[in-house]
Amino acid sequence: MKVGLFFGSFNPIHIGHLIIAEYCLEHSDLCEIWFVVSPCNPLKKKATLLAEHHRLYMTKLAIENDFRFRACNIEFKLPYPSYTATTLMRLSEKYPDKEFALILGDDNMENIEKWRNWEYILDNYNVIVYPRYGFDQAAAAKYPHVSYVNAPLMELSATQIRENIKAGRQVRYMLPDTVWHYIDEMGFYKK
What we know:
Blueprint: E1 2-8, H1 15-26, E2 32-37, H2 52-63, E3 69-72, H3 84-94, E4 99-105, H4 106-110, H5 118-124, E5 126-130, H6 138-141, E6 146-148, H7 158-166, H8 177-186
Parallel strand pairs: 1-2, 1-4, 2-3, 4-5, 5-6
Helix pairs in contact: 2-8
């Protein structure tokens, strides 16, 4: 079974994530997509992150009725900071019956050579790249195990959502309903 791994902080998970995941699933040979919630991306600041258990819970809420999707917390049990190559090795050991592929945006693909053990990733795993504004397919085209899906361009970002909530603006339709209710109930991102 081929599983796509969609890594992210998911701070919070939003409809853009779900649209891209579904598009990748429907336009590739993937059977499932696992949303790998990263406790701390070594290339991002941790100051704006909600606690990992809240982000995992919101991810589970967002996908709870879709059997094709799964929330994965494997990085919670790995040493910090989280490195994709380490996570991929651990998942491959734990699930030898599954073939894992990485799902990345053009922005991440353009910077992949800054990642720890990036050569290992590109030599041992297929990578599915989706478009992001301001980036092109050139970075994806130079590697043999990388394929490109022409998913819808999503301008929606978790940063925008957090900033809108802090400013008192409505974001209800940018989020799955269950996630919006949880954020509202908990008062997240208001400060």
